[in-house]
Design brief:
It is a single chain. The chain is globular, with a radius of gyration of 20 Å. About 30% of the residues lie in helices and about 40% in strands. Strand 1 and strand 2 form a beta hairpin. Helix 1 packs across helix 4. The protein has about 280 residues and is α+β, with helices and mostly antiparallel strands.
């Protein structure tokens, strides 16, 4: 799975079925299937240089937002075009244009986006590499087009970081497509509270869920098209964190090669609703 986008998917979670609780042994064949899928995702990410233009429909507690996003080799530019189902008015669109202009002419903002993206890449790749060993794996169905595998925490796995402690306390399932062996869907649930410093420094609450869907956009190119995050907890000095977000991505079109940030901004200025014609 693309580590650039996997950062979200591996820290999220879906639905745990009761049958998973009885899974206490590793299925070597299932584990090897997951290991092979991970290896394929890592190579695919290394070789994937595609960039995309698409719609991002995001729901958070504060409302629903529709963005047009343009990816480039220098970063991503996005423009909000709807809020709570209503197109933005002229004043709001003008503010979006000002925000975009500020970003494309500010090296500090661009550097921050690049740094954050790199950090996400590293965290996501580390999580991806842990998948085969952090869980006990079992094949639950094997169809002609995909294999579905369930996972529960591996009691013999020792998480090396705080993030991986949360990751390793999840259970759920993965769907691996055939014949490419690409991760098509991953979902899970935090099956126990995860405490840091006996709960003094923080706690992630049992029951948090994630679900991520991916699909093939081009030969050997897969992207996340849908993600759902619903987790709660507090970390460090009782700071409350609530991650409640649902995102659906549609209308994917390739960004022309060598597109600059300024060209991406112009595209958003000149075609603010072109991807939204059928929404």
């Amino acid at each position: 799975m693309n580590p650039r986008t996997l950062a979200v998917s591996l820290l999220l979670a879906g639905l745990l079925t009761p049958s998973l609780s009885a899974q206490t042994q590793q299925d070597p064949h299932a584990q090897q299937l997951v290991r092979s899928a991970v290896d394929i995702e890592l190579v695919a990410d290394r070789d994937d240089h595609t960039r995309w233009r698409y719609l991002s429909d995001v729901r958070r507690p504060e409302g629903q937002f529709l963005y047009t996003v343009v990816e480039t080799d220098h970063g991503s530019v996005k423009k909000k075009i709807k809020q709570n189902g209503q197109p933005l008015g002229p004043d709001e669109l003008a503010k979006e244009t000002q925000r975009i202009d500020s970003f494309i002419h500010d090296p500090a903002q661009q550097a921050k986006q690049h740094k954050d993206s790199q950090q996400d890449d590293v965290r996501a790749e580390n999580m991806l590499r842990m998948l085969p060993d952090a869980f006990l794996w079992k094949i639950t169905s094997d169809a002609s087009d995909a294999t579905t595998l369930s996972f529960v925490p591996n009691p013999d796995f020792n998480p090396p970081t705080m993030e991986s402690r949360v990751f390793a306390a999840m259970a759920g399932e993965i769907v691996v497509s055939k014949p490419e062996s690409r991760i098509q869907r991953i979902s899970g649930k935090l099956i126990r509270d995860v405490k840091f410093g006996f709960g003094i420094l923080g706690k992630m609450e049992q029951g948090g869920t994630f679900s991520v869907e991916r699909r093939r956009l081009a030969p050997k190119v897969w992207q996340i098209t849908e993600s759902h995050v619903h987790i709660n907890g507090h970390i460090l000095l009782f700071k409350t964190i609530t991650e409640q977000e649902d995102e659906v991505k549609t209308g994917f079109n390739p960004t022309p090669p060598a597109t600059t940030l300024e060209q991406a901004a112009n595209l958003l200025r000149n075609e603010p609703t072109s991807l939204n014609a059928k929404r």
